[in-house]
Write a structure and sequence with these properties.
single chain; 15 helices; alpha/beta; 13 strands; about 425 residues
């Protein structure tokens, strides 16, 4: 039972270079992980001669009877392998037996392994894949490289774009899921709603989580979407999801929601930065809340492009500074930066002191502990007040701060007199 995918409209992804480098380095098996519809299957299928789609019952039945059928002698993709965990162990054993570089690709839309499945550590390398970044969407040609900013040489900053606020709002609602980008607005909205419904109705039961009250889970997701780009406590999200109800859901109910949604990669929280060199005390470690795609957050809140531009709040109000549009724009930038940073073998987090006196939206850290600090501003202009947190952090990090950037909705990329780079979101690339 071998199946093929239509790859005629494939758009190159940043993760392609990472995967190719791993194969060139001798990796025999690579597991590409991420939420459904981010493009894992198409990316893997570019590199194989045979594809097994395990969401198809007939394919699953055949491989369940004979898992060794994936040992074709050529390169193979086992798509959504978690539907038949025995295939993971078959690949692991093949790697032990001397499989060729790039012989196996596995894709999965959930991180939880079957308890009886070997982790594959040292044999099957894992690569995270997210929805399309702004650079991958092809809306304009980036002129500023995040990799160069991480180089520490303070590169020259330049470039211009005609894109403005309305274009970024369009990108927020357009989604980074490749299959949704060519659809009409109405069909795309329906697909985004259906995506969430599938998670609740099908994916939760598949992973052993029976949802007794699907409406309550949906309300929790709406409240989480309203908390996008904030560090709101989970109790606040729970209370917002049950406003007007006498009995609040217990933590024992909402905690499994969150755990399962993270395992399904629907939630993509941004961790708080914990500097390895311990320069700063009193750091807050609470994550910033993000859904895997800001389009899902906008959909859950019932906010289209017009509503976002009009400053509407959406279905649930969570205490926060700024508008929902500002939060979703930050989430769009965070998605893009995380994609680029992964390609540079760097990690991404956010910085905030306990009482919130100082915070930086994104901190990209190299393996030597040196960092790139990025602020996100829903504006075309930047003034001195916008760089105060970057300056404060720079004074404490000294040479460990590689560069400082403010990402905007403006038209021009340049360096300020104080050295801070100002970069329109569409001009920032890998």
């Amino acid at each position: 039972m071998v199946s093929n995918l239509d790859l005629s409209s494939y758009l190159p992804r940043v993760v392609d270079d990472e995967i190719d480098a791993l194969v060139a380095g001798g990796a025999s098996a690579i597991a590409i992980e991420g939420a459904k519809a981010v493009g894992k299957s198409a990316t893997a299928a570019q590199r194989v001669t045979t594809t097994f789609l395990l969401e198809q019952p007939a394919t699953r039945e055949v491989l369940q009877a004979d898992p060794a059928r994936i040992l074709t002698g050529g390169s193979a993709l086992i798509d959504e392998w978690q539907h038949l965990p025995a295939t993971w162990d078959t690949v692991r054993r093949a790697v032990d037996a001397g499989a060729a570089p790039g012989q196996f690709f596995l894709t999965g839309s959930a991180s939880a392994l079957d308890p009886g499945t070997h982790s594959g550590a040292g044999r099957i390398l894992k690569v995270r894949m997210r929805p399309m970044s702004l650079a991958e969407r092809g809306i304009t040609m980036p002129t500023v490289s995040l990799g160069a900013l991480l180089g520490g040489e303070r590169p020259t900053i330049g470039g211009d774009t005609r894109l403005g606020l309305t274009d970024y709002v369009d990108e927020i609602v357009a989604s980074g899921f490749p299959a949704l980008r060519g659809l009409s607005d109405r069909v795309r909205r329906a697909q985004l709603r259906g995506y969430v419904e599938r998670v609740i109705d099908r994916d939760f039961p598949e992973w052993g989580r029976q949802v007794r009250n699907p409406a309550a889970l949906h309300r929790w997701l709406v409240a989480y979407a309203a908390a996008t780009s904030t560090c709101a406590a989970y109790d606040v999200i729970r209370d917002a999801s049950s406003a007007g109800e006498g009995d609040k859901p217990a933590k024992s109910t909402t905690q499994p929601y969150r755990d399962t949604l993270e395992r399904l990669y629907l939630l993509d929280p941004l961790p708080g930065w914990s500097p390895s060199r311990n320069h700063i005390r009193e750091l807050a470690n609470a994550p910033k809340h993000h859904l895997v795609d800001p389009a899902l957050a906008a959909s859950l809140l019932g906010l289209g492009a017009g509503a976002l531009l009009d400053g509407q709040d959406g279905a649930v109000v969570i205490p926060r500074a700024g508008s929902p549009l500002g939060a979703l724009f930050e989430s769009l930038v965070a998605l893009s930066v995380r994609v680029y940073a992964q390609g540079c073998e760097a990690t991404t987090s956010h910085f905030r002191t306990h009482r919130g006196e100082h915070e930086v939206d994104l901190v990209v850290e190299r393996d030597d502990g040196k960092v790139l600090a990025i602020e996100v501003k829903l504006s075309a202009t930047v003034d001195d007040s916008d760089v105060r947190h970057l300056r404060w952090l720079g004074e404490r990090l000294g040479d460990d701060l590689l560069d400082a950037v403010i990402v905007t909705t403006g038209s021009h990329a340049y360096r300020r007199a104080d050295g801070v780079a100002v970069v329109p979101a569409a001009l920032l690339g890998p």
